[in-house]
């Protein structure tokens, strides 16, 4: 289908030359002498792109751009400007123009910019459609996953969102705890009220108390005015307390009171302030173990642990990796304005073998890096960060740095190593079980049991489908 382009320029010769060139390139073109007529035709005809001069009679190019982007945000706009007006062109870019060319310019230069702009437009449309399709099948709002672990999370969110129960989200750093909290809030009957977030990590008692409950003017040095705390700001809505495991013991009793009585006093204040707020907390540690060590109040633990959502680390739900890779790849291709569309099987294999200590946050960073270094349409292993590539060499030896840790889960570590070797053997032999048993030096019946245990066949086939 031919793209439709609107050309607006008061210089007739430029208009005619540009229209002729674009028609020869296969575009449907309409050319007009001013922006007023341009806005009028946009009301009745659908266009993919607008090429407009910056200096126009009746309405200049900047105002024309604003009107176009306000009414038709999907249309890409390219500006033509004289050399001395480049500053205005930069302003126009901030207003939403895709690009600009300075006069005099070659028609070939403009055509190249137009082609790039239209590809960018199509990528945005495709990504929007992809996101809608992905989320309709595997996601809950902006959370993506098709693994059984994530399906259970989605089910809990669907069940408890409209109930005011306190929720505790457990998971390692980078697993998406804040996204889950947001999904609960924005799918609840409090969605039109505030969603207030606070990380409790590394805050001392005085700062945390002021952040949570606010303070009165003059209550301590530096308190030059009365300040409302996060609970007060969240009244009617939801408060999300991340890293709740870091709250000092002496502050935990005050948090417990708010949960029980739904009221508090500001620091240095005497007035008791009632509050209607839903509380969602997140922790990267097991609170029950902290309770046993005397580092977390038992009564607060039970008050928080009404509904628990456990987020599995990415290494335990690798079925989600191809889906997440595809989503992040499209996201950063659009953001960086590059035409990256796929990932090679070899690169995806490396991502599946990697252990992901930073979880989804680390995966997103890796894909952003890969898109930035990709010089073609397909991400290949050399585009990945070196630690991901080197961390997956199937040498048969899995070095573990033990100097910085106090204990290790032996079964989990052995299982992860075994899974990596099975994936390596499957990919090396293209799933030939006779060859796999030979290179792994185990009986075929043992191999089949292990393949079933770790769901290797499904995992590798899923990766192969997404890489295509």
From TrEMBL:
Residues annotated as carrying 4-aspartylphosphate in the record are: 53
Record keywords: ATP-binding, Nucleotide-binding, Phosphoprotein, Transcription, Transcription regulation, Two-component regulatory system
Q: Name one GO biological process term.
A: phosphorelay signal transduction system
Residues in domain Sigma-54 factor interaction? 143-372
**Residue span, Response regulatory domain:** 4-118
For whether the record's keyword set contains Metal-binding, the answer is no
The GO terms this record gives for MF are: ATP binding; sequence-specific DNA binding
Which Gene3D superfamilies does the annotation name?
1.10.8.60, 3.40.50.2300, Homeodomain-like (1.10.10.60), P-loop containing nucleotide triphosphate hydrolases (3.40.50.300)
Q: Which PROSITE patterns did the record assign?
A: RESPONSE_REGULATORY, SIGMA54_INTERACT_1, SIGMA54_INTERACT_3, SIGMA54_INTERACT_4
Show the SUPFAM superfamilies listed in the entry.
CheY-like, Homeodomain-like, P-loop containing nucleoside triphosphate hydrolases
The molecule here is called Two-component response regulator
Q: Which organism is it from?
A: Candidatus Jettenia caeni
